[in-house]
Design a protein that fits this description.
Elements: H1 2-10, H2 34-45, H3 48-56, H4 58-69, H5 77-103, H6 106-125, H7 134-166, H8 175-181, H9 184-205, H10 210-219, H11 223-234, H12 239-244, H13 253-293, H14 299-311, H15 313-326, H16 329-349, H17 351-354, H18 360-388, H19 395-422, H20 427-452, H21 460-474
Helix pairs in contact: 1-21, 2-7, 3-9, 4-10, 4-13, 5-6, 5-7, 5-19, 6-7, 6-10, 6-11, 7-18, 7-19, 8-15, 8-18, 9-10, 9-14, 9-15, 13-14, 13-18, 13-19, 13-20, 14-18, 15-16, 15-18, 16-18, 16-20, 18-19, 19-20
């Protein structure tokens, strides 16, 4: 579909030397050291560690609040809102910062989201109800979690997109892996730390001081964004953004939708399906384990097994990062999600035997492989495909819309999974049904990925900019409006006189 559009419109661009490949400057040929090329990728992408940590820690915090306040918290709307409303805030942040990162600045959008993370992570720690009331405490915590989500949301269209654009200066054959390692692998590292920190705090403080445990666990969420603040202040706008942005032009939305609607739809559906199960299993992992281990198991043991579960994210994520360079993001995504479907059905079929205290080790291993395959495939490659399958001028909005649909899936899943379990006819089915649902969705995702996603090469970002310029020019839109003032009319070319 897209190739036909390009062929139809590119002929009218014969006189526009801005879109000729001969005029492209190889970004990797810029006079920079390896560290100078790499640190912007780290600074832009690694903030997603906060996403992993702050979402992961919500599970143990939810469990701890249930232990402290018992029936006053368990089963209440607050027990659903505190782990879930962060996703609603994330959607708002993704859509807002998607627009600002395209129309104003990648750097300043990223800085704004970082400051929001720092402020509301700190406020979550000190959440307090008027007069010491529990209702006020939970209301404040719910509001802070929502606003925290807004900051997390900014990390996607501003941070991930800028990280993807910065990889253009890296050596070919390594660009995909570095993007993945400092975005999705950073999220997974956050998931692990978000699981192990509450366990350590419980061992330090004991179960007699759980109020300190949950507050400190949330408060430590301030550290990751604070540690990146200086690097982000030193950031410069990516070269691709300087050359191709529409910040000084009116965006031709109808032309953009006509060119990208199908690709955006496919990626958004895949992201919705992935987050629907991935974040739901992550949030309720400690609760699932608590049911299996029983009421007599100490809290630290439940949290310890939950930590081990989260560790399984890492091998899948790291291997998937390299596979995306070796085999391509599309193929890696399809194979990973198909393997995840197989493991999900095995998990559902064997659940009666695995979900017992006797076989808790086997349960964690099989469940861990299920999580690992999710990271190898869609976890690693959805963000990669979304950030590299559209033009720089609309990349923030394209990525932000796709990612926000994914977070809507996470929000829906965090409510749907407890409902699925609560309405199961038997206790056994309440454990099996989430895996049956997830396995079925994985099969659908594999089919969409294999048959409908575009191929992503090492030079896709630059190639996509060329194609999109040709399309816009062929439809009468003046491409000389694109880019920063110092780059107007250059389209990734230093040979301005050739235009």
């Amino acid at each position: 579909m897209f190739d036909k559009e390009i062929q139809r419109h590119s002929s009218s661009q014969e006189g526009d030397r801005n879109v000729n490949e001969a005029d492209l400057v190889e970004l990797q040929a810029t006079n920079k050291t390896t560290w100078e090329r790499l640190w912007p990728v780290i600074a832009c992408g690694a903030g997603l560690f906060s996403d992993g940590y702050l979402n992961s820690v919500a599970g143990p915090v939810n469990t701890i609040l249930g232990i402290i306040y018992k029936e006053r918290y368990k089963g209440t709307q607050a027990s659903k809102n505190i782990p879930s409303l962060v996703f609603a805030g994330t959607v708002v942040g993704q859509l807002f910062f998607a627009w600002t990162s395209d129309k104003y600045s990648r750097k300043w959008s990223l800085l704004a989201s970082t400051i929001i993370l720092i402020v509301f992570a700190a406020l979550s720690t000190g959440a307090y109800g008027a007069g010491g009331s529990l209702g006020g405490l939970l209301a404040a915590l719910t509001a802070y979690r929502f606003l925290l989500g807004v900051g997390i949301g900014g990390e996607y269209p501003a941070g991930s997109v800028a990280a993807a654009e910065s990889t253009g200066e890296l050596k070919k054959g390594t660009r995909n892996r570095f993007f993945v390692l400092f975005t999705n692998t950073a999220i997974d590292a956050g998931f692990i730390v978000g699981a192990i920190v509450p366990m350590i705090l419980v061992l330090i403080c004991s179960e007699s001081h759980l109020r300190a445990v949950w507050r400190v666990a949330l408060g430590l969420g301030v550290v990751p964004p604070l540690s990146l603040l200086y690097l982000r202040i030193k950031l410069k706008e990516p070269e691709e953004f300087n050359r191709e942005s529409m910040k000084h032009a009116k965006t031709p939305y109808l032309l953009c939708l006509k060119f990208y609607w199908w690709r955006l739809l496919c990626i958004s559906v895949l992201w919705f399906i992935y987050d629907f199960s991935a974040y739901s299993f992550g949030i309720y992992g400690s609760s699932i384990l608590a049911v299996i281990l029983g009421d007599t198991a100490p809290l630290w043991k439940t949290l310890g097994w939950n930590t081990l579960l989260n560790v399984f994210y890492m091998p899948g994520s790291i291997l998937g990062a390299f596979a995306s360079d070796w085999f391509g993001p599309k193929q890696t995504l399809a194979v990973g999600v198909a393997a995840q479907a197989v493991v999900a059905f095995i998990m559902a079929g064997c659940y009666a035997h695995l979900a017992t205290p006797t076989y808790i080790g086997a349960f964690v291993v099989v469940y861990g492989i299920f999580l690992s395959m999710g990271e190898f495939g869609p976890g690693d490659n959805l963000g990669l495909v979304a950030s590299k399958s559209c033009a720089t001028s609309v990349r923030g909005r394209f990525y932000g819309i796709a990612a926000s649909v994914g977070k809507i899936g996470a929000f829906a899943g965090s409510y749907a999974f407890p409902v699925i379990q609560a309405n199961a006819p038997t206790k056994l089915r309440s454990g099996q049904d989430p895996f049956f649902v997830s396995g079925s969705l994985c099969v659908l995702s594999a089919l969409i990925a294999f048959f409908l996603l575009p191929e992503i090469s090492q030079d896709t970002i630059t190639e996509e900019d060329i194609k999109f310029r040709a399309y816009l020019g062929g439809n009468g839109w003046d491409t000389r409006q694109m880019g920063e003032k110092g780059y107007h009319g250059r389209s990734a070319s230093t040979a301005e006189g050739k235009a």
